[in-house]
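Batch manifest, entry 17 of 40.
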Amino acid sequence: MNNINISETATELRDHRIPAEQVPETIIESLSISERERLKARIKQLLNEHNAVLVAHYYTDTDLQLLADKTGGCVSDSLEMARFGTQSDADTIIVCGVRFMGETAKILNPKKRILMPALEAECSLDIGCPIDEFSAFCDQHPDRTVIVYANTSAAVKARADWMVTSGSAVDVVKYLAANHEKIIWAPDKYLGQYVQEQSGVDMLIWQGACVVHEEFKGIELELLRKERPEALVLVHPESPSAVIKQADIVSSTTGIIKAAAELDAKEFIVATDSGIFHKMQQAAPDKTFIEAPTAGKSATCKSCAHCPWMAMNTLRKTVASLESASNEVFVDEDIIQHSRTPIKRLLDFTLAQKKLTGERTPDAGHEPGS
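Output type: structure tokens
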């Protein structure tokens, strides 16, 4: 099978990375100790009153992650956040994350009320893959199987044949290639390039990028590694290739946390959103975690290792959403029906893979995720 050259792919698709001026400033909520405790107590009370459960992404504020853990909720990647609701008796799920995560939760829990602290919390990958442009591109290549990353809107998922996570993408693409299928990949170009390099598959790659991971700098990482030669480098595959090439481990958010806990090293340089450090420190309290560099001579840093949209999830906004039952996520019924198919294909594939390898399957279709 002939591979598609990355540079040739880029000429077919315009650059869908969002300009720096469209990225909001990262604003961290400033609270006194007493106000912080009051808000957390209020959230616990409201969760009980509304038979609600709180699910939080690894990249959100530490207080929200702690609340999710302490109140019977979930701290995880985007797909597991959505799947958690299917196993919960709660009537309401409050999703601390970005918009596509709320939509995915609604797709898998259509009868439940899905709230978000900040409906305005977007994702640069989602923004950079508008459904009209993406659908038109897919129509130009009807012979190709359409694979989209979890970080996409419900409408884009509905247009796809498969949804994948960073932890499953290589295996899914290899499986499809074994059946002689050619691929359209969207939206993250760096993850797409990594998948193509690992699989050798014929892929047309949408030219989007995550504003957080794209800021990690290969030159500065090389200099930092010389300063900390004992540290292992853990990298999310949404990062540029110059960063990925220096990694000891390339993995999903869940995989990075697992690696930190299981590897013998005492120091790790981490190239993903710094919000993950809370769970990494919980998993390996005796180890040191260092942010991969986003600054230096080659930097144009805007996000600086933390997603500005994730930072929109705050204690105050969580209280406001629960008190007024506002910021509810709605997804058109037709889109729900069509987007469930690519998600279910991933879940079924993952379950089949686990059975082949003999891995314990406590719940059908569990996937480490993005």
